């Protein structure tokens, strides 16, 4: 990708335009990190960029932005610009094309305000970005109140960058975030979700959530999570402290989580505040069920996809089930562990335990059992089908599922291994029409265990 970014700058330079790399890629180079993308700033107008790169896509001509596809990668090329007043907390009312220094002065943070000439290796710093990288500081370019009023999302971005880069936020910058935190709701749910997800999957996610809470952003974006602060827990199970402390510690213990797992971990105990009761001890009866309902509302509010919402809700609803796996009927436990989603369930359970009592006995048992199941020959499918039941004379209906599930449980528990054994089991437990069965208790048992 770097070679393409050099080529874009070279082609612009060969046609007597100024061109620099700018933004996060320069910051990453200064920090010795590999950039994930490259942005180029130039004095060439969008039409001139499009002439030099015939496949370019004019995505924001009004703002001087062109996307250049080259060698299988895409590079954002923007014309040096200054921006007029922001009227909606996101977009400027006008732009004008300017010199490189004026362009830098409109950007968000000093660490993102460096210009780099890839042809000479020279880096230009008009805003003290190098010094802030050296001291690991997030600081706005210019007055933070103005920068955040221009684009409210910059408040979330400051916290996300602090978490991602393991930097601290400058005092004045953080104070401005705290003052304007409530205004973050002016930003679209989709943009908030994207910044939140990026924060939750980086190693510094716990620090990021603490900063969200301290700044007031958490209360504005996820008040259900903010409400967990100060909610007590039974010390015999949770020596770490309140629900918020536990949640942050659980996030910290996750290992390379997906957005779904990270979000589910953030939300897994949001049902505790509304279910708090104190009798013989502090209890949160059915907080998993209540929390799952709340998680669904939150995910829809911040515009997670339907599929991701379903998976997050399932993780929240079932986060207490893993501890019961060793006590479940073998078929039920096997069914749970064979589900592809069980890896996330086990990782959430592990983080949950490490953030509280620290006992990983169930996690280790379940992980070992899951590995044993994975090492077994591939499942060739169910031993019987609805067609077999029809041939035996059973009338199609709800009983089909009861019978098929009963047989599948028997197979998972090793009680039947062949189709013939399965059919014999059916004839014994579920007498075909016209026969009188004396095993109604077994039938009821089959229903209860599905």
Could you walk me through the main structural features you see in this protein, from its secondary elements to its overall organization?
It is built from 24 helices and 13 strands. It is α+β, with helices and mostly antiparallel strands and 450 residues long. Among the domains are: 2-135, Beta Polymerase, domain 2 (2-Layer Sandwich); 143-217, Hydrophobic Seed Protein (Orthogonal Bundle); 386-448, no CATH class. Strands 3-4-5-2-1-8-9 form a 7-stranded mixed beta sheet. A hairpin with a 3-residue loop joins strand 12 (276-278) and strand 13. The two termini are 53 Å apart.
Task: Offer a quick outline of the entry.
The chain is α+β, with helices and mostly antiparallel strands. Helices cover 51% and strands 11% of the residues. The strands form four sheets. Strands 3-4-5-2-1-8-9 form a seven-stranded mixed sheet.
Question: CATH fold name of the domain at 2-135, please?
Answer: Beta Polymerase, domain 2
CATH architecture of the domain at 2-135: 2-Layer Sandwich
Describe the biggest sheet? 7 strands, mixed
Widest beta sheet: strand line-up: 3-4-5-2-1-8-9
The low-pLDDT segments are 436-450
Distance between the termini: 53 Å
Helix proportion of residues, in percent? 40-55%
Structural class: alpha+beta
The CATH C-level class name of the domain at 2-135: Alpha Beta
Total DSSP E strands: 13
Specify the CATH homologous superfamily of the domain at 2-135: Beta Polymerase, domain 2
Per DSSP, the total helix count is 24
Strand content: 5-15%
